[in-house]
Amino acid sequence: MSVLTIRENKTYAHVIPFAVFMSLLLLDMLVDPLGIRIDNDAQPWYRRHPEYVLMLLQVVVCLPLIVYWRKAFEWNLNHYWWLGLLGGVIGIGLWILPTYLYSALDLKVEGGDPDWYRYFGLADRREGFDGKVFEDSSLWYWVAMVLRFVRAVIVVALVEEIIWRGFLMRFILKPDGNYWEVPFGKAHWKSYLVVTAAFTIAHNPVDWLGCVCFGSIMYFVAVKSKSLFACILMHGVANLLMGWYALTFGKYGLW
Q1: Which residue of 66, 81, 115, 196 shows the fewest CB atoms closer than 10 Å?
Q2: Rounded CA gap, 160 and 172, in Å?
Q3: Given phi > 0 = left and psi -120 to 50 = alpha, else beta, which region is 199?
Q4: Residue 119, SS3 per DSSP
Q5: Strand (E) positions, 82-199?
Q6: pTM for the complete prediction?
Q7: Which ranges in 134-227 belong to alpha helices (H)?
Q8: Is residue 238 packed enough to be buried (19+ CB in 10 Å), middle (13-18) or exposed (0-12)?
Q9: What is the spatial distance between Cα 26 and Cα 202, in angstroms, rounded to a whole number?
Q10: By the 8 A CB rule, do 251 and 189 touch?
Q11: Tens of pLDDT along 163-212?
């Protein structure tokens, strides 16, 4: 297959960036079995937290893939861009709400929270990426923070919406035929259920309720706007607000 053919292949364009992103994410599961992680303060940060190296790779590998295949995507920038902006604010508000209520209403149970808490997002969410590992280097701290936001706001928004709304919503409706004949944002209960379920399962159980709410709003935005750009904007705005909330209130486990 020629390079030109590969570049024009819409299926490759929509699937490969997400596949690479998830492959790098899954590598984190091999860090401990392979002895790559060394939990010793005397070691440099990349030996203690190799997952941050994988985060860097997700940015420097996946973003160029999106740029390479940029002409294969139907961005469809139209006047419904504001719907994506509004959806991002509402969607992330619903996602964060259980964590906020957990702290505001002091729902923590002495002796341990019940298991069902996590399926409703009721958790303190303080363990996660906060940059403390870089306290001995302000330069690495800011590099890590900038990359974390680039990853969340740009890379994640692009690769996820391209695969979920750009590809899977179509594929579900015409898996045995030319699914690219299906117009972007075509409404059908089957695509709603499958895409929302896939989006939800790709996250941790503590985020499942937020995923269902966010995915439902995103589906509405896709169907109403018929715009991949509006969906990416919604996802990017949501992740930007989530990152701000996590850093401001110490809820690092959210992102």
Answers
A1: 115
A2: 16
A3: alpha
A4: helix
A5: none
A6: 0.91
A7: 138-149, 157-161, 169-173, 189-201, 208-225
A8: buried
A9: 11
A10: no
A11: 999 999 999 999 987 899 999 999 999 999 999 999 999 999 999 999 99
